[in-house]
């Protein structure tokens, strides 16, 4: 098991380096850097002034060097401004240049400063990720039990009326994207068109205090899409297990149907759904973009949209790194859990 874990950790580290390298390359393409220069120095500056601004701010150096600075494995660049004062990546406004550290990258906890919000990227990402984490928690609490129950009930009696009804419901849920179900829920339960104004169509007030009224619709919008997918995977796994030879043997020995399901079938049937459930975390982190924008909930997804729309490179990099970290960690937890549920993986 230790060798299995060591291999997964090494693969995680290599994947993180490769993915962050690609993200840094895409966000630091020359057209993007020129947009940053015009955003910072003025949209009417000439091409020569853009080039001068990029040189003064360290963007003219080799790409590999800038990537190393961003990671924190290469010393940050230094220079002087028009007044002759020292400037550099590690020299922050109002700080003493003599006490500035040599390395100031992701590994040192310095994520840069947002050009739009004028605040530390690490602080912004932590705050917005916390808001999205609350949303993800309630979505998982709602989505996982309901989807597992639907999948298990449908898989226990394959071909029955209950199976057909639940399968149809799951397909309809999965086929409806969030931007459709969200609008439908707002029209039905948060507008004057139907007279059923039970909930709020905006979740902006939930950032100050969560209530059932202002948080139900965004949670339901995300959960409805995921319920159908997990339920169908659970149903397929449960159906396969219920036709296995050891299940038939248990039934022939007189074991009750309830004990067959709970003691023999359920654990093996949950192997595939467990992987699917773990993969919902990265999907939720990046899939909340539409829902958070629709309900004006300023979490991680909303911040990612703002960073991309305003060409805020440092914030976009910070959001991307956070998303990559969540994806890789959840994948690692999924592999460990899969090996725990299926001993043949550990033996292999």
What does this protein structure show overall?
The protein is an all-alpha fold and 348 residues long. It has a domain at 133-347: MetI-like (MetI-like fold, Orthogonal Bundle), CATH 1.10.3720. 69% of the residues lie in helices and 2% in strands. It has 14 helices and two strands; from the N terminus they run H-H-H-H-E-E-H-H-H-H-H-H-H-H-H-H. It has helices spanning 2-27, 30-41, 47-56, 63-71, 121-156, 161-175, 178-189, 212-242, 245-252, 257-269, 271-294, 300-309, 313-341, 343-347; strands at 78-80, 86-88. Strands 1-2 form a two-stranded antiparallel ribbon. Strand 1 (78-80) and strand 2 (86-88) form a beta hairpin. Helix 2 crosses helix 3, helix 5 (121-156) crosses helix 11 and helix 11 (271-294) runs antiparallel to helix 13. The longest helix has 36 residues, at 121-156. It is globular. The relative contact order is 0.12. The model has no long low-confidence stretch (mean pLDDT 82).
- Secondary structure category: mainly alpha
CATH class of the domain at 133-347: Mainly Alpha
Strand content: under 5%
How far the N terminus sits from the C terminus, by CA atoms, comes to: 10 Å
Mean pLDDT score: 82
Order of helices and strands: HHHHEEHHHHHHHHHH
Total helical segments: 14
The CATH H-level superfamily of the domain at 133-347 is: MetI-like
Strand segment tally: 2
The percentage helix is 55-70%
Q: Do you know the CATH architecture of the domain at 133-347? A: Orthogonal Bundle
Instruction: Give the biggest beta sheet.
Output: 2 strands, antiparallel
Shape: globular
Low-pLDDT runs of 5+ residues are: none
- Rg result: 26 Å
């Amino acid at each position: 098991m230790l060798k299995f874990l060591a291999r997964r950790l090494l693969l995680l580290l290599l994947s993180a380096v490769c993915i962050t390298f690609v993200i840094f390359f895409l966000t630091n393409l020359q057209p993007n850097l020129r947009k940053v220069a015009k955003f910072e120095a003025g949209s009417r500056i000439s091409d020569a002034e853009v080039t001068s601004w990029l040189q003064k701010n360290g963007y003219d150096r080799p790409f590999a060097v800038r990537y190393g600075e961003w990671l924190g494995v290469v010393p940050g660049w230094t220079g002087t401004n028009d007044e002759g004062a020292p400037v550099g990546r590690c020299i922050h406004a109002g700080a003493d240049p003599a006490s500035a550290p040599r390395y100031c990258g992701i590994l040192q906890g310095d994520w840069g400063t947002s050009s739009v919000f004028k605040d530390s990227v690490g602080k912004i990402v932590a705050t917005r990720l916390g808001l999205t984490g609350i949303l993800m928690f309630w979505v998982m609490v709602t989505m996982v039990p309901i989807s597992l129950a639907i999948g298990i009930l449908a898989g226990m009696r394959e071909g029955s009326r209950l199976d057909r009804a639940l399968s149809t419901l799951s397909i309809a849920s999965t086929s409806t994207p969030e931007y459709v179900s969200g609008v439908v829920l707002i029209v039905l339960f948060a507008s004057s068109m139907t007279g059923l104004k039970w909930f709020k169509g905006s979740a902006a007030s939930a950032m100050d205090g969560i209530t059932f009224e202002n948080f139900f619709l965004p949670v339901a919008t995300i959960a409805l899409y995921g319920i159908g997918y997990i339920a169908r995977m659970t149903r397929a796994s449960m159906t396969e297990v219920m036709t296995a030879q050891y299940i038939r043997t248990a039934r022939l020995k007189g074991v009750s149907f309830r004990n067959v399901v709970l003691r023999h079938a359920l654990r093996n049937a949950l192997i595939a759904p467990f992987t699917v459930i773990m993969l919902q975390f990265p999907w939720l982190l990046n899939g909340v973009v539409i829902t958070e924008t629709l309900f004006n909930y300023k979490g991680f997804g909303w911040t990612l949209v703002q960073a991309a729309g305003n060409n805020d490179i440092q914030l976009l990099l910070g959001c991307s790194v956070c998303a990559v970290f969540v994806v890789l960690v959840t994948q690692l937890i999924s592999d460990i859990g899969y090996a725990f549920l299926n001993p043949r993986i550990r033996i292999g």
